[in-house]
User: Fold these one by one.
Assistant:
Number 1:
Amino acid sequence: MELVKLTHENIDQEHICCAISGNKDIQVMSKKNWLKDRLDEGLVFLKGNVRGKCFIEYIPAEYAWAPIEAQGYMYISRPERMRRMPLRPLRHFPFSMTGSL
């Protein structure tokens, strides 16, 4: 599976929501504008180039959208629907925590 890293250069062309297909939809435009602001804060948004939802998002903890104190750490976002699932240890990361693939 190929991982695509969202950047300011490619975010307008990339599909970010499998429930809404049109880039001109107000919800998609709002989400992309929000993501652009988060990219400036250090967000790394990787998406699997596959059908369906396959995202990895992480950001420096001081910019996390959850109330945490973890300076020097990364906040890894888990979608709401996955919060009921237990976290399992990762055997390996296909990228470094600095955001490089």
Number 2:
Amino acid sequence: MRKKEMEALKKARMRATLDYNNKFNRENYKNYSFRLNTSTEADLIEFLENFDQRKEYFVTLIRKDMKRLNKRKKASDGTNKE
């Protein structure tokens, strides 16, 4: 194969891999993002900068809050049997 053909084949394979990965990510993940104001929320930015695993931190906080809210809901509607 000539050099141009090899390069074209390599690009096609890379494109196919990228397309596959993008499709997989669209079907299996959800992305959320938000902005923090560097002036009014600098304390939050500084706090978050100290975490290597921000996703884990957010997931843990959300799950903890979900559990707390679920307990509160069960208590208010009388279904809490603990």
